[in-house]
UniProtKB/TrEMBL annotation:
Keywords: Hydrolase, Metalloprotease, Protease, Signal, Zinc. Belongs to the peptidase M16 family. One of its GO terms (biological process) is proteolysis. Residues 49-165, 532-653 form the Peptidase M16 N-terminal domain. SUPFAM superfamilies: LuxS/MPP-like metallohydrolase. Residues 1-23 form the signal peptide. It comes from Roseivirga seohaensis subsp. aquiponti. GO terms for molecular function: metal ion binding; metallopeptidase activity. This is Peptidase M16. InterPro entries: Metalloenz_LuxS/M16, Pept_M16_N, Peptidase_M16, Peptidase_M16_C. Residues 206-381, 676-850 form the Peptidase M16 C-terminal domain.
Length: 949
């Protein structure tokens, strides 16, 4: 068929922002121009294709967006769009069962898919020599999928989706909130009246015939947008797209769904006693409008001006004055046919949600009377510009954006209009939509409280209907035979063999400049000018490792306090100064370092660094802010105590490191240790441990090395000091492999953590160990993922890997599995881990080598990934060319080398197993796993009380 070229378009984004200077004056800034070139054409069968050329790196992103989401489902068959997204990764006639995932991994690429109310997208990023293979595979899913669907595959994928629902909804605090909100906001049968993941009952009842009907209706070329972005030749892309997609016949025309906004005739109040929640939670929701409605942009801005910043009305009342919650949120969420506006907060322990609602309404009244300033609006708009550039920093970001705008706005270039409309929103328009949709209007409110705390819910609330699935041992076995026979569909081309890779793949790592200031601070610099952006970090070694063991959480509190103003700026003034530059500045404390990070437009770098200088050298040490930060930290610790993954992590670390080691505890500390911390403790930590001799500055962006080096003169006044590092001995609870169990009553899933302390992060074998682990658990092409998810359907995902710490780097394998296969999952993990080293072949080594070498083409894509490379060099004392050196070792590794690494650092005889699950149904089943009788752990006991069952 002949390809029809509709039009060629070059989109220019030229945005001029009027920015407030830090002093409060107004100054006009130079315009920032972003150029996005793309070409759009349409095949005769209706497939719309967008091509964006970006030769900055040898990679390409392919995205296919089908205009079908949960809003196209039928009552009684909910969750189908999301379920179908899973099915498309299983098989197709020519690529073969399981080979889509395997091939992308072998090519050194990444992939995923996503489903929401209005669409389903599939995407891959691979080295550019594999473009034709990706088009071959994507076209096979579009045109040659349905004959491969089997009863076995259908049932297996049902279990995977059920696991996803249990993990994200049933087993998660506040997980049912979206279901309650949608069910009661929209009338029965409305396309948004169920959540995207749908009903497990509907899913269980799905048949192969249902799958075929869905595929035939929605997965035609005339209901899809294909985007190819990256290192490509446009003429070649046209030829390849016509070759692989041109022969598909269009399906029936897809009907347009007209907007169907929700209507509330009265305010509705619902409550749920959540067995997994520790704190009361309130969310209030108002109906609004669909995406791209004339009021859409002002509603988005309204959400930000209500809560963005310390002087926003809701923050001032709820957080600072009433002290009812550590934060408050407000946001507009507009989809294809309807929208909502939500305001809410997760309150402090014991807060009555009636008081929280009253505070929210008080904040809204203040907003009505006081409004917001021009500076507030300017700050938000310049932040949007920075966010836009960050979103465009990867080829995947470009591909997904073009696909979304083409599908839902009818034009990939609508990105220009979208930003223009957002940037032109006025104060009057924001107040207009507030009065039109929020003020004195009916709303729906959900009160989620811990079990037994019903007295905290909003007065007059009705008990919400929540569907929780019973876990029955052995109830989900797959009764069908694996595999399916089918007659291959005829094609105009030979699709039986994967196309060869094109050309020679080569790439050059970025040039790294490094130096050292006189006070000992190391400097690392990479010039990258694809976007007019910079990203940098100042990392100081120490972190939690330097905490007083009786006051763990000091470094974590300090990272918050450093952002709570400076000697010359109140917390509000500091926040405003950063925001007016469209910048992001943050401080983060980890186990072994504290990092101050920043990003901004290149033209604003010096002003942002001025603010970082203030943050570093002139902390404000405000007692009132410290009290708020500390209370918020305790609130977060209380929340994590109800999270099964956090529980598993905390117990796992205590068993691995030994309860006397500081890493046995979370970086945030415990209720006991944080309660002991004073503001003087933070000052003492800062004065003793902040030294340039422990610091490294990492810069990536559109400024050359001399400019950056000149900017760092401001840090030369920082005087070095001697910092004393403690010594901790790692004392794993058991020398041999053992199993520990934590009871999490009524858990719908069990969390499994397995591991051992392997080495220190600067060990020269670290990279080789990551190579040895790759086939086991590094991603969706691994043995763990394949066997636990794809073959058994026990879990949504299973992985393994090494975490890089200077002081005891653990090797871990982990998963969350459905509760009724806990024992089977532990047995399967043990079988795989026991035999992995024995079975590692030279073929495995060759495949691993090829995949990792190819995947390194994506190591230099974003500013963030480049900063990460510099941070690895400075934090773990790695050579400047460590990536190349790691590659050289990889090229020479044999299977015997890998077996030796596996035996030393992943020894199955030294692996500790920790399981968090429902004790009454699962504990007894774990008695005969070959790991000894389970040792029951009380996670609330800080001394790690162990008792053998």
């Amino acid at each position: 068929m002949k390809t029809l070229l509709k039009h060629r378009l070059v989109a220019f984004l030229s945005l001029v922002f009027i920015l407030s200077a830090c002093t409060g004056g107004v100054e006009e800034q130079e315009s920032t121009e972003f150029k996005l070139n793309y070409e759009k054409f349409t095949l005769d069968n209706g497939l719309e294709v967008v091509v964006h050329k970006d030769n900055s790196d040898p990679k390409v992103a392919v995205a296919v967006l089908y205009h079908v989401g949960s809003n196209r489902e039928k009552p009684g068959k909910t969750g189908f769009a999301h379920f179908f997204e899973h099915m498309l990764f299983q098989n197709s006639e020519n690529v073969g069962a399981g080979n889509f995932i395997k091939n992308v991994n072998d090519l050194g690429g990444t992939f995923n898919g996503g489903t929401w109310t209005d669409g389903t997208i599939y995407y891959e990023t691979v080295p550019s020599d594999a473009l034709e293979q990706m088009l071959w595979m994507e076209s096979d899913r579009m045109g040659f999928f349905i004959n491969t669907v089997s009863d076995w595959g259908l049932e297996n994928e049902k279990q995977v989706v059920k696991n996803e629902k249990r993990q994200g909804v049933d087993n998660r605090p506040y997980g049912h909130k979206e279901y309650v909100k949608l069910k009661n906001l929209y009338p029965e049968g409305h396309p948004y009246s169920w959540d995207v993941i749908g009903s497990l009952e509907d899913l269980q009842n799905a048949t192969v015939a249902d799958v075929k009907e869905f595929y035939d209706k929605w997965y035609g070329p005339n209901n899809a947008t294909l985007v190819i972005a990256g290192d490509v030749d446009e003429a070649e892309v046209k030829t390849l797209v016509e070759k692989y997609f041109g022969e598909f016949e269009p399906r029936a025309e897809v009907e347009v769904i007209e907007p169907q906004p929700a209507v509330l005739d009265q305010t509705k109040l619902f409550y749920h006693e959540d067995k997994f929640a520790n704190l009361p939670d309130l969310e209030m929701t108002w109906p609004t409008v669909e995406q791209y409605h004339p009021d859409y942009w002002a509603l988005n801005m309204l959400g930000q001006v209500l809560t963005d910043g310390k002087k926003s009305a809701l923050y001032k009342v709820v957080v600072e004055e009433k002290k009812l919650a550590p934060g408050v949120f407000a946001y507009n969420s507009s989809a294809e046919i309807a929208g909502t506006f939500s305001i809410g907060a997760r309150a402090f322990d014991g807060v009555n949600l009636n008081d929280l609602r009253a505070a929210i309404f008080e904040g809204l009244k203040r907003f009505e009377s006081e409004g917001f300033s021009d500076a507030d609006l300017t700050r938000i708009k310049i932040g949007q510009e920075t966010g836009f550039y960050n979103g465009m920093s990867s080829v995947f970001g470009k591909a997904s954006s073009l696909a979304n705008y083409n599908t839902f706005a009818g034009d990939p270039g609508f990105i220009v209009e979208d930003l223009k409309k957002s940037q032109s929103v006025t104060r009057e328009e924001i107040m207009k939509v507030y009065n039109k949709y929020i003020k004195d209007k009916n709303y729906l409110a959900t009160s989620f409280v811990p079990v037994g705390q019903k007295e905290l819910v909003l007065d007059g609330s009705e008990k919400a209907s929540v569907v929780e699935e019973a876990i029955v041992q052995g109830a989900e076995d797959n009764p069908y035979e694996q595999g399916v026979t089918f007659e291959k569909t005829a094609s105009k081309i030979d699709r039986s063999v994967a196309p060869p890779l094109k050309g020679t793949l080569s790439f050059d790592p970025p040039k790294i400049n490094n130096s050292k200031r006189d006070n000992g601070m190391k400097v690392f610099h990479i010039y990258q000018d694809e976007l007019p952006m910079v990203q940098f970090s100042l990392r100081i070694k120490g972190g939690m490792f330097l905490d007083d063991p009786a006051k763990i959480g000091t470094a974590a509190l300090l990272d918050n306090m450093l952002m709570e103003g400076t000697a010359n700026k109140t917390p509000l003034e500091l926040q405003e100064a950063i925001g007016q530059l469209g910048a992001r500045v943050s401080v983060f404390a980890s186990k072994e370092y504290i990092t101050i990070s920043g990003s901004s437009l290149a033209k604003n770098y010096d002003q942002v660094l001025d603010l970082v200088e203030e943050v570093l050298f002139e902390p404000r040490w405000d007692e009132g802010e410290f009290d708020r930060v500390k209370k918020s930290a305790l609130n977060s610790i209380q929340q994590s105590a109800a999270n099964p993954n956090a529980i598993a992590s905390n117990v796992f670390n205590k068993v691995l490191y030994g309860k006397e080691h500081i890493f046995a505890y979370p970086t945030s500390g415990t209720t006991e240790t944080v309660s002991n911390i004073t503001l003087d403790d933070l000052k003492d930590y800062y004065n003793k441990n902040f030294s340039p001799s422990l610091a490294s500055f990492h810069f990536v962006g559109a400024l050359d090395e001399p400019t950056v080096m000149n900017s760092l003169k401001r840090f030369d006044k920082w005087e070095a000091k001697d910092v004393e590092f403690p010594e901790y001995e790692i004392k794993t609870a058991d020398e041999g492999s053992r199993i520990y169990f934590v009871d999490y009553p009524d858990a719908k899933q069990s969390v499994i953590n397995i591991g051992t302390i392997s080495m220190n992060g600067d060990n020269e074998d670290f990279a080789a160990a990551e190579v040895a682990n790759y086939r086991l658990g590094d991603g969706s092409g691994s043995i763990l993922f394949k066997q636990l998810r794809l073959e058994k359907g026990y879990t949504y995902g299973a992985y393994s890997g090494f975490s890089r710490n200077m002081n005891g780097a653990p090797f871990t394998a982990s998963s969350s599995v459905r509760s009724n296969v806990t024992r089977e999952s532990v047995d399967l993990f043990k079988e795989i881990l026991d035999n992995y080293g024995k079975n590692f072949s030279q073929e495995d080594m060759e495949n691993t080598r090829t995949t990792i070498l190819r995947s390194n083409t994506q190591s230099y894509e974003t500013l963030g990934s480049l900063v990460g490379i510099l941070q690895n060099i400075s934090t773990y004392n790695l050579p400047m060319d460590y990536i190349k050196k790691d590659e050289e070792r990889l090229k020479s590794m044999t299977s015997e080398d890998a077996k030796e690494i596996i035996g030393e650092y992943m020894n199955p005889d030294k692996l500790i197993y920790v399981v968090v699950g429902d004790g009454k149904t699962q504990l007894d089943l774990l008695k005969n796993t070959g790991l000894g009788k389970p040792i029951v752990v009380n996670p609330k006991d800080e001394k790690l009380e162990l008792k053998k069952k």
